[in-house]
Amino acid sequence: xxxxxxxxxxxxxxxxxxxxxxxxxxxxxxxxxxxxxxxxxxxxxxxxxxxxxxxxxxxxxxxxxxxxxxxxxxxxxxxxxxxxxxxxxxxxxxxxxxxxxxxxxxxxxxxxxxxxxxxxxxxxxxxxxxxxxxxxxxxxxxxxxxxxxxxxxxxxxxxxxxxxxxxxxxxxxxxxxxxxxxxxxxxxxxxxxxxxxxxxxxxxxxxxxxxxxxxxxxxxxxxxxxxxxxxxxxxxxxxxxxxxxxxxxxxxxxxxxxxxxxxxxxxxxxxxxxxxxxxxxxxxxxxxxxxxxxxxxxxxxxxxxxxxxxxxxxxxxxxxxxxxxxxxxxxx
Length: 332
Prior knowledge:
The protein has a single domain (37-327), classed as Nuclear Transport Factor 2, Chain: A (Roll), CATH 3.10.450.50. It has eight helices and 13 strands. The chain has helices at 2-14, 36-60, 63-67, 172-180, 198-211, 240-244, 249-253, 322-330; strands at 76-79, 86-89, 108-110, 115-118, 124-137, 140-155, 158-167, 228-230, 237-239, 258-268, 274-287, 290-305, 308-317. Strands 1, 2, 3, 4, 5, 6 and 7 form a seven-stranded mixed β-sheet that branches. The chain has a six-stranded mixed β-sheet with strand order 9-8-13-12-11-10, with helices on both faces. A hairpin with a 6-residue loop joins strand 8 (228-230) and strand 9. The longest helix has 25 residues, at 36-60.
C-alpha cells in the first residue's frame, strides 16, 4: 500500500505543472574508419611471420603443422624442385609427407631476401625468397640457393597457403644441351581444371606472355616495383621496370620456338580482383637442326586492372632431380 501511495505521489508531482525531466540519450559514436594502408602493412607483417613459421616447421620436420598451413577451401598446387615433386588438390594428403630435398641430411631452411606483397584489400598475398637451404656436407654446411614463391589467401585471422613453387636456376644453354642429349626430365603431370569465365582469358594471357616477339608491346605486365618475373636462368630475376621489359620464354630459347600449356590449374580470389595459375609448359625448340621438347613449370599471380588482368609475379623453372643437383653442387 505504501509503495502504491509513493508511486501516485510521483505521478502527481510530474503532472503538477512542473517542467518534465528531459532525458538526454548520448549519441552513438561513429566507428573510426580503418586505414587501408595500415591494414595492408599489418597483413604483410602477418604474412612474413607465416612464411618464417613454415620454414621453421620444415626445418624441424613438423609436417603436420605445415599441412595445417594449407588452405582448407581452395585447391592447392605445390611444386618442388624435383620432376616428380608436385602435390595438388583439396587438402591433399601428400602435402603432409616429407618432401624436402636432402631430407636424410636434416636440412635447415632460412630466409635470405624475403619479399612480401598483399592486395589492396589485404585478402591475397604473394611472396618471393631466394631461400638459404643448408645441408651438412663433408664436415661443412652447404648453402643451396633455392628460389621460392608462394600465393596465400586470408582465412579469417590467418594466412593459408594455396600455391608454392620452388626451383633451382638453370641456364638456357644448359637446358638446350640437356634436351639435345635426351637428358631433359619431364615434370610430373597433373589434372587440369576446366577453363571457365576469367580462366579462358588468363590462359590466353599466359600464352601471349610466353610467345611474344622481342620488344612486343601490350603484354599484360603490371607497372610498379612490386612486379617480379623469374625466368629459368639465374640472371633473369627481374623486378619493376626490368620485369616489364623481360624477354618472352620463346625469345630466350631462340628462333622457331613455341611455348604451350600442357596442364594448368587456376584460382580466383573471393574479391574477384586477384587470380593465380600453376602450369606445366612445353617449350618446343630446335637444337642442332633437331626439334626437341623441354618440359618446364610456371606459376603466375594476376591482379585485375579495370577490364583486364595484369601479371604481378611469374616464376618459370625447369625441374631438376636431387641426383643432378648433387652433381652440380658437390662433384669435384
